[in-house]
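Appendix B. Chain record.
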Amino acid sequence: MLAGLQRLTTVGIVLLALLWAGAALSLGRPGWACGGAALVVFAYAIVLAAEFVLLHRAHGSDPTPVAGPSLLLRAWWGEVRSAPVVFCWRQPFLSERWPDRVPTDARGRRGLLLVHGFVCNRGLWNPWLARLHARGTPFIAVDLEPVFGSIDDYIQIIERAVTRLEAATGLAPVVVAHSMGGLALRRWWAGQRSGDRLHHAVTIATPHHGTWLARFALTPNGRQMRRDSRWLQSLSRLEPPGRAARFTCFYGHCDNIVFPPGTATLAGADNRHLAGVAHVHMVYQAEPWQEVVRWLD
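C-alpha cells predicted for this chain:
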C-alpha cells in the first residue's frame, strides 16, 4: 500500500514541476519556469528546515547536548539528500529489491529482524539488506501495515517474523528498529511470557517517551507517539523491570522528528549519541550497523 502511495506522490511531484515549467516557458518566462519547478521539487527541504527550527526551540530542559547552528545545518543537508532517495526511490520502487533471506541451512546462525518506522516500508533498509545478503546472515525485513493504524496492529507481524527466524536458526534473533518500529517491537516483547525470544534490540531514533512533534498527529499511531500518551504509559506498565538493559538506543540532538533528544533513550539501556545526524539519515550511519553486527556475531 505505502509503496503505491509514494509512487503516486513521486510521479505527481515530477508532473507538477513539468507542467509549471511548460506553462511558464509558453509565456516567455524562463526564470519563473526554473524557479517554480525547483520550488515544487524541493519544497520538502523547506519543511525539513521548519522541523529543525522546532527541535531547537523545543529542547527546553532536556539533559542531552544542544546542537549548534553548524551541526543543525549539517544534519539538515544530510536529510535533504537522504529523504528523496528513501521516499521517492527505495520505498516506492525498490522495496522488494532484496527479499527476506531465511535459507534452509540457517541452523545455528543468528538471524536479524528489521522493523521500519512511521510512513516507511522495508525499502528503508535496502543498503542494510544488501550487506546482510553478502554476509550470509538470515534476516526478515517486515512491512508494518496498516500504515496509519494502531501500533498494536503490528504485534502479529513481528510475531510471525520472530517465529520464522527462530524456527530456521534455532536461536533468538537480534532486532534493529527505526523510529516507531522500536515502539512496535517493545509492544510485542511486552506481551511475551519469555523475554529470551530476542537476543538483543537496537533502536534508532525511536520515540521511547514520545515526541514533541506528535502533538500535530492525526492518525492512531501518530497520536500514540505523543509525549506521555496513555498508550506509552500503558506500554511502560506492561514491561518487566530491567527490560531496558536488553536495548542499545541510538539517538541524536539533530533528530528533526524525535525530539527533545532524550525521548529516544531508555533508562538502563546502552544509549549512544549520534551527533549532527537527522532522523532518516541516522539509519545509514556506521555505528548502528556495527553494533548490530557485534550482536549477530
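Further analysis of this model is presented in Appendix C.
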